[in-house]
């Protein structure tokens, strides 16, 4: 079948020089939140770039506030799955072709990465679409339930949640163990909380931001620590599994 979703973008106030990021696309359920930065994760960002596995290439056009992006997946292209996007009703061409044998029957899920933006989704629940849908494509919500694949379910209650706390001296291998343990137990969907994990996500165009902070390491550490403190506050209110990886 051919699947479609629409996303409308709204900026939120910020004091950063490059404050607003929106990247939309599709990923496997096993992928991390960092859309387009690992295999089987396919994103299209507002800078006019497409990305998968941290490879960024020019694609389509830039998009910003009040633009509407349609994310299209076509499963009826023979041995391949075609991923493409539309901006305000204009088709931008095929972004990725993925061989079905590589996907191995695994489902692609809608995925969005945002920074300082509010977004509105249309999976088919709106009475009217933002823009007309190409012939042959169906909104996800209109597909029969039997044709959909459910994503990993999180813990039903706080009592079922799991928190692992790493203990050990610096450089003892705590982060390495945490990453391996999370990868070995994908159904747990562990969220690793620690300044290392935060700094690893501080990427610009897929490149780690540490490279840009030569001589200002203390600034980066301070920012990451502030983020971690805020994440721990948020984590306390969410029903998820965590690994606390912090000295």
Automatic annotation (TrEMBL):
Entry keyword annotation includes Nucleus: yes
Domain B30.2/SPRY: 1-128
GO annotations of cellular component type: nucleus
Classification via SMART domains: SPRY (SM00449)
InterPro entries the record matches: B30.2/SPRY, B30.2/SPRY_sf, ConA-like_dom_sf, P-loop_NTPase, SPRY_dom, SPRY_hnRNP_U
CDD domains per record: SPRY_hnRNP (cd12884)
Subcellular location: Nucleus
Protein name per UniProt: HNRL1 protein
